Amino acid sequence: IHLTGTNNLITKYTYSAGLQKDNEAPLIIKTNDSDTTAGILNARSINGDGAGIGGGGYFSCSNITIKSCSVIASSKYGAGIGGSKQRAGSVSDIIINSSSVTASSTDGAGIGGGGYGASSVSGITINSSSVTASSTNGAGIGGGGYGADSVSDITINSSSVTASSTNGAGIGSAGGTCSNIGISGGSVKAYSDRMPGINCTPHNGNSTNVYCCIIKNEYFLPVTIDSESWKPSYHIFPDSTKDGNLYVWLTEKENNDAYDVTVGTEKRQYSFDQAKNQFVRIQTTPTADQFDYT
At 286, is the pLDDT very low, low, confident or very high (cuts 50, 70, 90)? Predict the structure, then answer.
């Protein structure tokens, strides 16, 4: 599908998806090659069992790629992007590359499984994108609500991702199992009102566990971590608004050595707090080069 301008696909039929895909053939959604601005797709299933983009009523879903475009997808009982309600099959191979995506659901996952199912959810990959995925009863990214989804192989690379849920995990499951969540670079903010933000410990590309380090960056300045430039340097949402924090995921260093972080010209250090299972800032004495003299 080549997108030009703004495109709306909205269904009120109970058993349909906004953009329905029930077969195993690849579906690629992208901006038209000749366009200089990103195409926009708004796909919704209103009060229905189908996904915003993906499976129609009681169908599984696989092989969706969203590339270099802007997508808004929502459903009530199905996933925003992924499976439909009460599906016992699989949801797999959803890839988001260089895109801006907002996906939401009430009982399904924002991205992943539909509600009330027992499907396996795997192969969700987000690269160099800005994504907000939310749900009330499912996971933001992962399993649907009121089911027993098995969730695995979610990979996020160099992206700004916000994944949230009221009753499920931000990333992971809403009642099933969770494994193999990978985060490399970028900023990933995952939270839930009643479950862990990520309900299995994520790892980096080298299969080493990573933990959240929240770096305050309210003025959206360049950030380096151990002298390496960090991209993106601030958390950004699909509508281009910004968060005053950067949510990076780092490995615990040997002997609990600290990371040297520079925000603009300000030098900071962060070390791993085992009791909190996350990184915390170490109080250090300011140096002269951090001040502007007038």
Answer: low
Please count the CA atoms within 13 angstroms of the CA of 101 that sit on its side-chain side: 37
Query: Who contacts 255 (Cβ-Cβ below 8 Å, separation ≥6)?
Result: none
d(CA 9, CA 175): 31
User: Are 67 and 99 in contact, with CB atoms under 8 Å apart?
Assistant: yes
Q: Which of 73, 87, 72 is nearest to 15 (CA)?
A: 87
pTM, full prediction: 0.93
Phi, psi angle pair for 288, to nearest 5°: -60, -35
Q: Give the pLDDT score at 41.
A: 97
Is 123 strand, coil or helix? Answer: strand
Rounded CA separation 203/200 (Å) = 10
Q: Compute φ and ψ for 94, nearest 5 degrees.
A: -105, 120
**3-state DSSP call for residue 54?**
strand
Residue 89 above 70 pLDDT? Answer: no
Q: How far apart are the first and last CA of the chain?
A: 57
Specify the residue for token string 């839930």: 192
Q: Which amino acid is at 139?
A: A
